[in-house]
């Protein structure tokens, strides 16, 4: 669905993108993450055809962004910017109808979409009375107009409460199951790590890593965190077994013993603890989070 090859973009002396190569498959939920200023918004604007690349090629659904034939592709795109700007004097329903006419979408979609994003009860209220979260929901509704084949969502859960975030991702899952390709950026990495199919880390205008969260964990070779919960406050036998292994410094808090374990030593750690099963109430293995992977990659490439 998206093929980006050798793309570069500069604004004066600032090289916002510097040789980006990226592929997003049809029907994929793809995460794009990076620090502020890494080039995410610039890349979004290139994919939307709002900017032209200085070098390289951006293809969306087989068409080059900015070409004459790309106009037809743009009608099948949905976009939610990070900062939603709406007309305060229009109601929610009027706003959605306005965007539907701009996009050439059927205005009969508007009321069902407001229901879908939880704004049915506020459809006739002026947008100036909307909270930040309600504005975000309305922005999401306009992105869904016309049943887009490709959705670009820039910090889409900004301002949403926990219930709104859950509903948002439920809607995304339904859209993805129907074949929609979705590209999402978020600074809340814990929120997307279990939801994206693949993710790319953008750093200083370059892709520093890309793949599934599981693959990136393996590539980063970050240690696991293992927590042992003892049956009693006497943790001496467990500590001795772990020191003999050895697995480095232990952190002990009451009956809880935590230590880091190299990925290739996981079974060795379990084997060291197996003879002590009568002393252990619980054993918890914690994989590195997407945030850990992100920080590891950006520190290595800094």
From TrEMBL:
Residues 2-229 form the ABC transporter domain. GO terms for molecular function: ATP binding; ATP hydrolysis activity. It comes from the Bacteria. CDD domains: ABC_DR_subfamily_A. Keywords: ATP-binding, Cell inner membrane, Cell membrane, Membrane, Nucleotide-binding, Transport. SMART domains: AAA. Pfam families: ABC_tran. Belongs to the ABC transporter superfamily. This is ABC transporter ATP-binding protein.
């Amino acid at each position: 669905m998206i093929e980006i090859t050798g793309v570069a973009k500069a604004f004066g002396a600032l090289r916002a993108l510097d040789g980006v190569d990226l592929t997003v498959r049809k029907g994929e939920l793809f995460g794009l993450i990076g620090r502020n200023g890494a080039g995410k918004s610039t890349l979004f604007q290139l994919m939307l055809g709002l900017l032209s690349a200085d070098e390289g090629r951006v293809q969306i659904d087989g068409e080059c962004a900015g070409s004459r034939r790309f106009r037809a592709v743009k009608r099948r795109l949905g976009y939610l910017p990070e900062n939603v700007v709406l007309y305060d004097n229009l109601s929610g329903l009027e706003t959605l109808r306005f965007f539907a006419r701009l996009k050439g979408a059927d205005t009969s979609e508007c009321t069902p979409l407001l229901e879908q994003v939880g704004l049915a009860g506020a459809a006739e209220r002026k947008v100036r009375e909307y909270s930040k979260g309600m504005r975000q929901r309305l922005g999401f509704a306009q992105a869904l107009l016309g049943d887009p084949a490709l959705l670009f969502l820039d910090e889409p859960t900004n301002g949403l409460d926990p219930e709104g975030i859950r509903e948002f991702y439920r809607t995304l899952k339904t859209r993805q199951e129907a074949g929609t390709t979705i590209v999402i950026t978020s600074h809340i990495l814990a929120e997307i790590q279990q939801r994206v199919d693949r993710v790319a880390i953008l750093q200083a205008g370059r892709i520093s890593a890309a793949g599934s969260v599981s693959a990136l964990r393996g590539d980063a070779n970050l240690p696991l965190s293992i927590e042992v919960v003892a049956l009693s406050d006497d943790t001496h036998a467990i500590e001795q077994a772990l020191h003999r292994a050895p697995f480095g410094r232990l952190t002990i808090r009451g009956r809880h013993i935590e230590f880091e374990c190299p990925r290739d030593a996981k079974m060795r750690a379990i084997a060291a603890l197996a003879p002590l099963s009568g002393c252990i109430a619980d054993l918890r293995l914690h994989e590195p989070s997407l945030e850990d992977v992100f920080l590891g990659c950006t520190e290595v490439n800094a």
